[in-house]
Design brief:
Layout lengths: L16 H11 L3 H11 L6 H10 L1 H8 L4
Length: about 70
């Protein structure tokens, strides 16, 4: 997963609704799959803010792609 400061999902500081989505991904043991999904979907990389917004507002898309129940 390419983030401007090369953090992994577990090290990424999130805020607001993104934090709950991030934690559900981690608790579901899907962090590596999430990072691969982001790499494939955004090959140019993302800023931490862009990734936070995806985690916050696109949880349905994320969970569907990772096979996580809402």
């Amino acid at each position: 997963m390419k983030i401007y400061n090369n953090e992994s999902l577990q090290d990424l500081d999130t805020w607001c609704g993104a934090t709950a989505t991030k934690q559900k991904i981690i608790d579901s043991d899907k962090a590596e799959e999430f990072e691969s999904l982001i790499d494939e979907s955004f090959p140019e990389g993302l800023s931490a803010m862009e990734l936070n917004d995806i985690l916050w507002f696109e949880e349905e898309w994320i969970f569907e792609n990772l096979g996580i129940d809402l």
